[in-house]
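=== RUN LOG ===
request id: a7f3
mode: sequence -> structure
chains: 1
length: 161
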Amino acid sequence: MKLILIFIIIVLVGCTTTTQIPHQNPTIITKTHTTIKWLPFNDDLIKKSIILNKLIFVYLNDESCDICKRMEKSTFGDKFIIKLINNKFISTSIDVEQNPIAAAIFYNNDITVPKIVFIKPTDDRWIVSEITGYMNVFRMVEAINAAEIFVKDNINENQSN
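=== RESULT ===
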């Protein structure tokens, strides 16, 4: 009888102990969050763009900009946009307040964010196109397509001359 009572106590204690251990869902543990691969704006970025023959995607922003935050969450958080930018571009994000010297390359006097700049460092005219203001997913895809078409048209034009 004592053995049965001890067995029941061990089982009950064991059950309460295991139920107190937090259970973690294996899908949460293995789930990875995909983001745009932002690289620092420096000479290596330009070299990588030339070697891989990819445009540079520059995102100019400001930490205190609400529109930038909204665009980062909605547009840059979209799986299609993430895949598109990561596959087609060498990307960099520049905070205009934290890195005013790098930001000055892309502005004359008026600093307006958010701003997207497409750069082709091997051309005489490095800046392919630039767009200022909030861009939803649809507008971002349009801007990417327009930049790519512009580069292809210039390549074809240069080859025919």
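=== NOTES ===
The chain has one domain: 34-160.
Residues 1-33 have pLDDT under 50 and may be disordered.
=== END ===
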